Each structure stands twice: as C-alpha cells, then as structure tokens.
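TODO from last week: model D-alanine--D-alanine ligase.
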Amino acid sequence: MFEQADVQKLGRVAVMFGGESAERAVSLRSGEAVLNALLRQGVNAYAFDPAGRQLTELVDEKTDRVLIMLHGRGGEDGAMQGALQHLKIPYTGSGVLGSALAMDKIHTKQIWQTLGLSTAKYQIADKSDFEAGSCAAIMMELGNEVMVKPAREGSSIGMARVTSAKQLETAVQDAFKYDNQVLLEQYIDGPEFTVSVLQGRALPSIRMSTPHNFYDYAAKYQDDTTVYHCPSGLSQDREAELAALSLRAFNALSCSGWGRIDVMQAADGTFYLLEANTVPGMTEKSLVPKAAKVAGLSFDELTLEILATSLTEHEA
C-alpha cells in the first residue's frame, strides 16, 4: 500500500488524458475521475491533454511524473511511453515494448500461442489482400461463429460477432475503417472474465453478463444492463488458476505496473485468453476499480497505487 506520508515526494504530476484516438471520450472520463481522486489526496496534479498541447510543455512546467490515462493509439501503444522516456519523465504502467505488444491483438495472440497459453483459434485479414470469397472457408475453419476485431483498437470499437460468410465480409470491411489488419477469432460461447493486475498481483476476477450480442462498447459504457459479479463465483482453486494464467499472460507481453487481462471460459471449463489492456478504463463503470474495491482498495487508494508504478518502472 502506498503510504499517504509519501504523497509530497511524488512532486508535480501530469494526468495525461484525452488524446486523439477513437477512445478519446472514455479517456476524458477516466482522466477526470483519476485527477479528482489525486487532488482529494493532496497530490500536486494537473490535467494534460496532448491533443492540444506540446509534450515539451511537460518539461517547461517542471513535471516530475506522468500518470497516463490515454486509451488507444498514441497513448497505449508505446508511442507516448517512448516520448516520455526521451524526455526523461517517469510514467505509469507498461513500457514501450509491453504497451506496443498488448495494443496489437494479433501479436498478443501469437506470443501467447508460442508460449502454450490457451487462446482461441484465429485468422488474420489484411486490407491489402483480403478476398470476400474466402469468408465461407474462414467461417468453417473457425467454427461458424466468429469475432471480428480491428487489431489495434480498444473498448470494443469496430468489433462484431458474426454467424455467416456474408456477415463476416461486412464486418471485416467495417473493421478496416479502423485498422489495416483485422483479427478473426473463434467465438468462445461461455462466461467472460476479467482479471486486473496491480503491481505484480492479480486482483479478484470479475464475471460480466450482458443481454447484448457480446460485451460491446454500449454494454461497457452507455447502458446499465450489464451485470458485474465480483467475486465471480469461481471456486477457490479455479480463481487461483485464472489468476496464475492472467499473470503469466501479462508478463509474457512484457507488461508491468498495472493492467487487465480479459478471458473467456468455454463449456468444458477451459479458460481462453482474449486480450491485454495496459491502460484500462477508470470510469464509474470500469472494471479495475470494481476489482480493487473487493480487494480492499478504494478508488482514491487505487489511483495512488497506479501513480506509484511510476516510481519503480521507468525512473532513470
């Protein structure tokens, strides 16, 4: 637990949120909530939106560290992390490599697959050579129910669940609006779990249930029909198994500090890794604060724990 007495040692903190990615709206909400929590605890924090400011202003304002609350490209993909390292300003969460790998769903799956970690069957659609005529064969190969995901987007943006070749063709073309590469993944029919990771430990898992076709953007941020179960209802042994799998998956991608691993459970009980998030949402509907609360951390305490990752992960 980060000691309140050390708050003054954190110095001047820029909470970086907003940005220019497709997830800007969520980032604004996350960043505002985190900034207010830090201010309540006496941290010398201020808002910094890189969409309208130059990064050199961080140096001009004598910023001691940055709490990154940017979701998506430009903030969660290693680009901002590299820029801050160049400026020699410590920042929260994963470094350049972990951020870049976790942001790319295809490379994430390839690494997990290489290490023998369970993940669903998949294929890759590339905008440069995708042929609509291949959709029927892809559907058959992946079990006739497929999740379509832009390789480098978050918050379920551009995602679709399809059950026919025609739907697959349409969904892939829609996903190409967000990315030149699209992940086509076998749909796992079962409960979805998420495991938050905070400074080397797994927090209690959360099981999500939604009346939506899948846990999409609306289910995450816009309506109140999603139900979150934490504790998730797993036995003690299965909870420990899921926690261990999630930590292995997190570390395999060179992630560090804090983040989240999303998992599906098949009918036979097998856990299948979906993706990693290195800057998860911190809104009132977000998952990490829910898990932290069950683990005994308030939202305010959680923000300090996240900020504390800047003290050890990337400080020169």
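Done. The two ends are 23 Å apart (CA to CA).
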